């Protein structure tokens, strides 16, 4: 089934390398590259073939076109074949001579061989016979020696001679024969030479003839081809000419048609033009008439206008006269006015100069004033600074003085108490109890109770709840002055929830640090971090937060309870925003740090009101019960929402309060006087009265005692004098002082100088 | 002429006004321009220098020039032309060519006479035109294409060949050839010597002696002294030699024929063998019609074994016989021979068998010629068997070899298989009508054979005609292939898928 070309290829290969570069690469080649190339070629050829098939037997078309297009091609092909044939025959004709000579040569060789063989045979025969003869002759010589008879010998010699002669003759014959043959050969050589020359001449002749005929044939074929080309050209020319003429004719006919059309159209247009002209004319006439009528009307109007003009002219003339007179008057007035104007101008100038002067003055004034103002402002600022400074100092001083006074007072009071105690215990014999007053514990100036920080509260709450298990609500009112409607338990739960849910607000470092700590401590620290992130600083904020949780619960509780799961999505989304807010909130917190203290005080006021309102609604206990239930029900997922809302609210409230910068509020010293009064009235008047009477009594007792003391002193001195006198006497008596008393007076003098 | 000018110069105003010559019309303007014109005349008309002396008035002189109708610039030849003429004249003594600018070189070359001594021209002139003239002057018929298309090569090759043809050993001075060697060594690519004369011993005596003894015995006696010119030194000097074509024989001896004129002595043979062995550029070696017998052929072939460049060996019309053929067969396997011609060499069946054996494994040989031998059926069959496995031989000539039907049967088998053979010649054999029919069958299966000669071989005209028809078809196909090699693949593959589908 293989194509024949591929079968034959292996044999081709070696040949290809040598002489035939026409063949393409073979599939069966040893060289893999060549095989690949061959396959590629085959594929390409197949694709090409398919394409050609698709193109509707392009090959056939080509063939047809070849048949079509060229008489010349046919002629060329024909002449080529003819010439090839002629050439073939010519060469055959020429080579025929060679072949003929070859054949003749072969024949000659064969004959020659035959003749040679014959000759050799003949010569051999000859040799044999002559040898026999010679042998015979030589044997006869021996015979001859035996012959004694001369005749016999002579006879024998004669016969011998004869034999010899015969032998020689034979030889000679042979020689002559051979020579004959040689001569014949020579002749033949000459003949051959001649024949060769004939052949050569024939060959030449034929070649020449061949060349001539070929030339002729070529020329003829050339002529034929040329003729064919000529004919083809002629045909082409005529065809083209025909085409051209046909096209020209078509063109001219079309031209004619166009011309006729054009004429028709021209006529038509002319008619239309005429119509148009007539119509125009009529119209023109109509318009003309109309216009003329208009002209007449206008002329009439013109006349009228002229009349009115006349009238007006007269009127105007009259008016002109009047005006002239008026003009004269006005000139007079004008002159007057001019004068006035001049005057006024002078005034104006004066005023202007004055004005300028004043402006200058005022400017100067202004400058000085502004300088003053600046100075004042500076002063004021300095003053303020000093005021602040002094205020601080005053505060301190006040505090110091207070403390001092207080100390003094307290010392006094304690002394008083001590005295009282002594009086009571020692003199009156009554048991003495120290009075307990609030002011006694006070140290320093009275101020508002300090705001507790949120964390502290938390700590407290936590601790409290922890302790609660043990104490079992033993001190329900221990904590604090704070929202009573919420139990600390609830708060704790809420805070725990907050702590668990908003872990993202805590820094990761902190978390890692928290791990080893205790549970409560851990919560505490976490909450601390969360609060700092949320911006909750004060106690109030914390309670607000807790409250907010409850309120939120109250508002949204039902809905969030129904589908707590739904919130998660939004929560997560708000998580990111929460983080943002965290940073914002911290920023806000930092910026508002200065204003926090006064603000909180204000805020606390407002919150107090709020709380009271809340308190008013329900009883604390009930509220707690109610609150506990929802707090449980606050879904962890809602915590973030609540936080978000809370942070927003917190910020808003702070923002609202922020612009209200209140200066240092005055200390309220209402309590001070009370305090001091209270201090002064530590000892009640009843006691004072007691003390007064006691005093008089004691004074009396004192008098007695002093008298007694005097007497005692007198007694004592007397006793002493006595003792001294006794000792002196002893001394004088016992010692050898007498010798000593004999001291020169110089020595006595020296001692007092010393 | 000069005498007539002055008076005519006086008349110029009238003539110039009436005459149509443009220079005449220009004169009034130019004369008014003052001393400028003389300079212009100087430069524009160098040929007028002598005339200036006779005419003192420049203006008048100018007018004369303008009026001179026979005046032209080419009256005196250019100096360069004079120089060139002189160079050409003295080229024999003082050849100046390379120093000239190219355009003058061309001029000089086109005017050089063709009979200049070769010593001057050989290495100096490359111009083909000059050598063409030299060749055409010496020889009426020149085939440039046979000499590599170069006229210079043609000239030197033919010059050398002429010298060799007429060289008579012992008489002619060998220096006549060797002197030429340095001049022509670069230009001789082929040597085709169709006669080498034997030495002439005692010109009067050989004829008398020859008449006395015509027999062959005399030849042997003279053989030792019948050595031809030894080509050794010459061939060794020709560095470009590629083709050597020798005939040890005398041409046109006519009726003066003597055997000794055609003697190829052992001395000749040895010297030739050494020569061709030493010549490493040789591609074609032909030694024909020289009575090379078996021994000499073997000597020659031995020297050709493993020759680096030899491609064609032609020993036709000799007597190398079977032993020589065996030597040639050995040579086939020891060289890159592409053409081997052993026509008319008395080769018989054993020689043909040896050749067939060598051919079986050969991949170079393209053409084998065994015309006019006598290999007979035995040798023919051996060759046909060899061709079954050979895939490069394209031309085979077995004309006049006593072949008959058995060989034809085998050849027809070869033809149906072989795709390289393009030309076979079986003319002058005894193929017979049956053999012809079998060959026809073989040819019918073959697509590559272009020529098949069966003349005078007893084949019926019918089969001969049919064979020629088949060959014609093959020729047309080959022509198509040659015309558009790209389309050669296409028809096969176009048919291919169709056949596969079928």
Indicate the topology.
The complex is a heterodimer of chains A (754) and B (502).
Chain A: H1 4-18, H2 32-54, H3 58-69, H4 71-146, H5 150-428, H6 454-471, H7 488-501, H8 508-514, H9 519-534, H10 539-562, H11 567-591, H12 593-617, H13 620-633, H14 636-657, H15 670-680, H16 685-734, H17 737-741, H18 745-753
Chain B: H1 5-18, H2 22-32, H3 36-44, H4 49-54, H5 58-67, H6 79-89, H7 102-111, H8 118-121, H9 128-138, H10 151-165, H11 175-178, H12 181-184, E1 190-193, H13 204-212, H14 217-223, H15 232-237, E2 243-246, H16 266-278, E3 284-287, H17 294-304, E4 312-314, H18 321-333, E5 339-341, H19 349-360, E6 367-369, H20 376-389, E7 395-397, H21 405-417, E8 423-425, H22 432-445, E9 451-453, H23 461-483, H24 486-501
Keywords (chain A): Cell projection, Cilium, Coiled coil, Flagellum
Family (chain A): Belongs to the DRC1 family.
InterPro entries (chain A): DRC1/2_N, DRC1/DRC2, DRC1_C
Unreliable runs of chain A: 1-23, 57-66, 468-484, 558-631, 656-665
Distance between the termini of chain B: 101 Å
Number of helices of chain A: 18
The average pLDDT value of chain B, as a whole number, equals 78
User: Taking strands numbered 1, 2, ... along the chain, how are they ordered across the largest sheet of chain B?
Assistant: 1-2-3-4-5-6-7-8-9
Uncertain runs of chain B are: 1-56, 203-224, 488-502
From the spread of the alpha carbons, the general shape of chain B counts as globular
What share of residues are in beta strands of chain A?
A: under 5%
Q: How many DSSP E strands of chain A?
A: 0
